[in-house]
Design brief:
The complex is a heterodimer. By secondary structure, chain A is mainly β. Chain A is built from two helices and 22 strands. Chain B has three domains: 445 residues, Multidrug efflux transporter AcrB transmembrane fold (Up-down Bundle), CATH 1.20.1640.10; 152 residues, no CATH class; 243 residues, Clam (outer membrane lipoprotein receptor (LolB), chain A), CATH 2.50.20.10. Classes of the chains: A mainly beta, B alpha+beta. The interface between A and B is large, with 56 and 47 residues.
Chain lengths: 453, 1078
Amino acid sequence: MKMSPWVMRIQLGLLLSSSVFVLSGLVFPSLAVADYSASLEQELALDSSDHKQKFEMLFTPEWNIELSDKISMTFIGQVRWDSTKKLSNPEGSHYSAPGSYASANGALYYSDSSEVSIREWYIDTESLGAYWRIGKQQVVWGQADGLKVLDVVNPQSYREFILDDFEDSRIPLWMVNTEIPIGENSNLQILWIPDLTYHAFAEPGTEYEVSSPLFRPALPEGVPLVSFHEDKPSSPIQDSDFGVQYATFYQGWDLTLNYLYHYQDTPILYQQVNTNGVALSSEYERNHLAGFTASNAFGSFTLRTEVGYRSDTYHLMQSQPNQIPAHNGIHRSSEISSVIGLDWQGLEDTMISIQWFQSHLTRHNSNVIRPQNNHIMSLLLKRSFINETWDLEILALHGFDQQDGSVQTKLRYMLESNLSLWVGSDTFYGNKNGLFGQFNNKDRVIFGAEWSF
Amino acid sequence: MSDNPHPSTARAIAKLIVHYPKTQVAISLLLMFTLFMALPMLYKDTRSDAFLADDNPALVYRDKVKEQFGLSDPIVLAVINTSDNGVFNPTSLSLIQWLSDEISSLENINADRVTSLSTENNITGSDDGMDVESFFEPDISTQQEADIVWNKVSDFPLYMGNLVAHDKQATLIVAELLDVKQVEDTYQQILDIVARAPNGKHDEIHVAGEGAIAGYLGSYIDADAQRLNPLAGIIITIIILFAFRRVSTGILSNVIIAASVLMTLSIMALNGIPFFVITNALPVILIGISVADSIHVYSHYFELQAKHPSEDKKELIIQTIEEMWRPITLTTLTTIAGFMGMYFAAYMPPFKYFGLYTAVGVAIAWFYSLVFLPAALAIIQPSASKQMREFAKSNRLDKFSRTMVVLGRISLQYPKVTVGIFSIIIISGIFATSHLVVNEDRIKTFHTSETLYQADAAINAHLNGTNNLDVVIEAKEAEALFEPDHLKKMEALQNFALTLPNVQGATSIVDYLKQMNRSLNGGDKYSYQLPDNKALIAQYFLIYSASSDPTDFDEEVDYDYRIANIKLTLNKGSYVDTQKVVTQLNDYIKARFNNEEITATLSGRVNINYHWIKDLGRSHFVGLAISMFLVWAVSSLLFGSLTAGTFTIIPVSSSILLVYSAMVVLDIDLGIGTSMFASVAIGLGVDFSIHTIDRLRSLYQTHNGDWDLTLQELYPSTGRALFLNYLAIACGFGVLISSKVVPLNNFGTIVVVSVSTSFLASMSFLPALIKLTKPTFISGYQPSEKTISRRWIRIPSIILLVAVAGNALVNQPALASEGEAGKTMRSDNQLPSAGVVIAKINNVDDGEHATRNLTMTLTDKRGKKRVRETIGYRKYFGKEKRTILFYKKPTNVKGTAFLTFDYPDADKDDDQWLYLPALRKVRRISAADRGDYFLGTDFTYEDIKLEGKVDTKDYDFETIRSEVLVQESSPPIQTVVIRGVAKSKLTAKELGYGKTEFWVNVDTWLIAKSNYWDPKGRLLKTLTISDVSRIDGILTRHRMTINNHKTGHTSEFLFSNVDYKAPVSDGLFTKRAMKKGK
């Protein structure tokens, strides 16, 4: 029997942090300058029948330490506590943390109501003509907001579907991130990611458990599930991800070229039918992602574009009654996806942004549940009032395939420099089988406060 | 029971609304919130000048006079001491000295223009000619010394009555403001000074004057409105809750109220219409009106629901709309007509806009009552209260209905008596109208218990008065005012003015010349007259200026001795008390003063007030006539009968006439507040009669022509709804009665009286009249879709027609009555040209690169502060300038970075990026329109980018004067002032500034202060720069404070650790650096 993973993580975390602190104190006694800040956030969500969906407290301390002229370290921790358990363990059953985390990632301590984790912990340094950031961190690629084509370096937590702040839902990974300046306006970024952590989906029975047939295979009628097998990449070296981004600024255009060789963060659910029933096996698959982004401003408009080609993507197929699923129920194709966004800032204190996301499967057949071409539009409206003491944000997403979507609104008031209050709503509509429509009855109202110090 | 033979249209729309309720509610709310975004753009304008159009000749001329003589509405302090020696005792004199010093040191007070015993000079003859010296020295300690002061002052006629009371008991300290817009703050500061003044035992200090009134009026009325508006909302909510016993009804009504009030204000903001003093009444009025529509919907729906509890509620809602849309639309149209009457008739902008935007608000309430309300009801599907259901079951009536039935029984039983009573009201009202008095007195806006009111009364009792009227004398040629003939004319004019009622004092250079003449002739009383010799007069002025401050006469005469000012003081300020003075002076000037060489023009506060009140009476009655006609025309058309139209306005007419009688009896004048009542009373009152007639027509059909049954049936249902409607409105306006703002209080009282009368008349007089006459517009009514739709089309055309006619009728004479005014005034002499100044400004070295900490302190008008700390770097890459700013504190913005590439080529937009740590993404942003505010501060992006330099492409510059600029906490500096006017309207819009003025330090060629005006010409912002010092040999501005006069918001940029030597790496100006935070 292995040592329980969280005990191991705590030990690892404590060991690493104490040794780094001790070392830094010894090596750079007079130079160490620590800068501490923290935020405390409390958010209450009420669902449409007036019940508490979450009552979450987030405490996020951050240390920035200058170890020397060339070396600095950043540590961001987080404590989360939510007594309602609706998003983690509503039935109060035995609780274990999501299995998609690599052993070196994930929470240091967890229970169904709380979690203590290292959000980010990295060292910045300059050496060999390059800038290095080594440690647990977030890397964001791409130009699109919310709709992800190239922004797949870090996996995501879907415990609140897409409603949580990206900052909080993106799962930071241990990686080596090198940036090499080329000339005055260009930059080459190389990523090596040995951290084998993937998307964390909402736990079964929780509010945002995925139910759409797009992602959850419907078993052929009358066929029992006999076994479930999970297979995860395990070798940090062999199975690590590798990425390169070349960014340049040319004639007013911000351009990037991107390449990522990675395991896709969503497991593929293969169905194998034998005489006794169906055996499901969840496996992660490799993919080559190549893409580019371009953006520029024209008068009050900003154009943002992002295009990605994925060599191998996997999609669920419809199961025919009394038929053995072909190709284990999975269709494989390459995919071209893109986002075109247009921001308009012609009106004072206001931004209106429209994005059109499309994805195209190069190979398709009629049994694939998702359509060959999929389109999503997004509309973002942001406006601030009275010298930015009030902020209003409305984000609407609409999927054309299933005619479903979501509307999120948030009104934030800055009571003091370091204290803000907000109220907002998250609503879904449309087809129950759609990406957004599956949460049609999960509308909620939120109230929150953040205090930073 | 619909009376519409083709119910399809109304029904189809109602169905659409009820079957897709969520969409309707969502659209309504979205519309509402979208518009609310404009709300912050709304700005306040509580100046009394706002009552006249900006281009009104009287106002334009007054402003020119102000500029010429530096006159502004002063704040006046009076020290009153009723003991034997009056204010001429050591303590009081020291107090006057202390007060004068303290007030002079205030930022917004023009220290050169503080007039008091301690600042003014005595003119006496001496061996070498003339002595000009203070009345007293700072440290008076004995009564003898004080007596000497009294002797000196009482021997100087110019000051008696104006500065010092004839009975010794009072003296004034008159302080003029630098910036009238900051008067509220200054008034408060002065009150603070008064609170800690070293008073003697008998000393009383009063603060008054036009400046004080303006300073207090805004906050006084605001405070009142902030109390009243919620109160009105709460009372109305309570009534609705009580009547329908459903929480949702209260909430939905409040949504409609919010939509109507806030959307209207948003639309005002979008159109750049300010919030005037009287706009405070708009929310209260809209609250009353907007809730009336929803009451009718609720009443009908719950009534149906109580009668048919088992029926599908959505179907009941459809029926309600089908039945109620017509009367609701009708009343909305007539209410709009009433308020449009006010719009067309009013000549003062605040009233015009009040009429127009109340009409807009009414239309919004209509839309929300017919679209949002049924949709929301369809979602909630409320049931009628238990009580209502029981009453419906047993055919019993609730209290509201019972009251109405009793009222109906009485009036229908004795129809002739009812008609008789109302006829008496009408006749006495007509008689009373001729006795109405048009009057307005600003000081009476305040409750008599207010200290300001009492101060004004005290000053007017002891001294010449607090109300100013200026007579501006303009001669053709320079030095014409040395001419004895001209001076004699002025003297005669002054003497004539003093014979007019309420004119207590008159001063001009004439009085100074007389005093000088007397002093130089050994103090002989008979020498107190004008010298008869041009050369002598010129000499007097020369002697005076030689022995005193040359600016002493700035208020009385200009530099060229071509323009002079006669200042008249009145002890009463009301229209009735001053109008004779103004008209008689005008007559005198026209007949006996003006000639080829010299002219006189009236100006000053009293003249302005005269101009804005003089047309009030006519405006009121014309407006009333237009409103009445519009309402009559609209209802005639809608009912398809002229008689019906006439019947509709009878109750309203009787109510207005009753109000006139009441005003005459209670001695209430027709003033600003009260004159507004008629349009409101018509707009609201006519609703009752329209509902009554409309309902009677359908009841007549239902009851197959039984008159008695028709009339009886009116009371329990429609009567109940109207009663609730009335209660809501009466309570809404009733709240105004508790107002401390006297005109609002009067206004509220009058509206309540008139609405009550309209309601009673509609429910008793009108049915009684119908019972007696049995008119055919009820019995002969045969609805047909065609005629109805044609009528709906005709209404807008009628409104338009009347609008044009009314506008022509009212506005032409009002504007034409004032002739040409305002002649050119001189500008300054030899100064460096603007081009030279700007070249010097732009040549100031600002270093190849710089590192600095920048602390931004943002303070809102309530004094709440937000602080942001940043580190910024700037570097020139050839001619291209790159700037990056990293936010360090507070935590919620920490990590935010802002990078700009500013290209030398003017046609090339800057490139800008923003890094938001929450998104972890460098975001390309458009080079925000130059006039947009920079990251929540009061600086625009253009201000930030220019960094104190000047861009000649946007403005046409000219040098206007040189000035010694005195600013707090820095030594006076010699500046030249250059003025830039935006080259085009487009540029002005882009920059947000139509005009700027820069005070440029002539030693450093740095801008020390700037004023910015918005494209409409209102002073928008003032930037002051202080703590300038050299760092590494480069002149560095350490503190920049920008004050937004429109919002009251202030941003202070404090630069520290400025370093021009530490190397700044090129790598800092990259996206990578933004992400790394350094």
